[in-house]
Amino acid sequence: MDDSRLTELVGLSRSLGLPERDLAVLGEGNTSARLDDRTFLVKASGTSLADADEASFVKMDLGQTLAILDLEDPTDEDLGAALLAARSGDAGDLRPSIEAVMHALCLTEGEATFVGHTHPTSVNSVLCSDRALTLSRGAIFPDQIVVLGRFPLHMPYADVGLPLAHALRTGLREHKRRVGAAPKTVYLQNHGLVALGVSAGGVDQVTTMAAKHARIMAGVLAAGEPVYLTEEQADRLDTRSDEEYRRRVLQGRTPATGGR
Ligand SMILES: [Zn+2]
Fold first, then answer.
1. How far is Cα 140 from Cα 164, in angstroms, rounded to an integer?
2. Which of 164, 187, 194, 220 gives 158 a disulfide partner, CB atoms 3.0 to 4.6 angstroms apart?
3. Model confidence, pTM
4. How far apart (Å, rounded) are the C-alpha atoms in residues 99 and 191?
């Protein structure tokens, strides 16, 4: 197993699970990291982000996990068995999270190396309202574009597990066709946030900024209507060389390891 990637994944998970960040409580949320062309690590079901350690992750076969999408009308038992069978190597008693297929999609179609899925109170305050689309309709401040990118992906509500995974596969493919790149954020209506990144630090930063963006949006909606930056303003921010430099510096950072 790639120990450095596992260590980074533990650090990211603990950071996302810090109680003061209010991103996930109890067993909420899950994280993953791609190891190579064939395998990835995903949080085991029944573990918490805050208490994550090296034993909290299951090594999965990428191809077998994605093949679960081809099962026709599986029962919950079929799905559980298929997830167990998609483990790679000696996983002991660990069961992968039910959201493992969603992670496998983010690590392939979504072009991510690390993924952090959380249920932030701030983001869900907007995502559980009839103004959920305000989060993905445009940019309201410059650093939103620098860290979160121009084009988030909004997914309508779908049952956790295979229905959500099927919808996400279609959503990611359409998104890439439409804007030419994978999203850094996926907003799951009435559910939560998925942050995609090429590094653990990148995922942590995207989650931090998405939570702040949602807090600002909640304030904006209390004060009035959002005023989005124009296409020209957003384009300019997206392509400025000094912003590109800041983005590269931010991507290189690793998250602080949780204080446990
Ligand atoms: Zn979730």
1. 28
2. 164
3. 0.91
4. 12
CB 247 within 8 A of CB 238: no
**pLDDT tens digit sequence for 193-219:** 999 999 999 999 999 999 999 999 999
For residues 17 and 24, the answer to whether their CB atoms sit within 8 Å is: yes
- At 53, is the secondary structure helix, strand, or coil? coil
**Structure token digits, residue 160:** 């956790």
DSSP letter at 87?
B
Q: Which helix (H) or strand (E) holds 30?
A: strand 30-34
At position 130, the amino acid (one-letter code) is D
Taking ligand 1, which is a single-atom ion, which protein residues have CB atoms under 5 Å away? Answer: 192
- If you measure from the C-alpha of residue 156 to the centroid of ligand 1, how many angstroms do you get, rounded to a whole number? 14
CA 119 to ligand 1 center in whole angstroms: 6
Specify whether the CB–CB gap between 191 and 157 falls below 8 A: yes
Residue 173 has which token pair? Answer: 């493919």
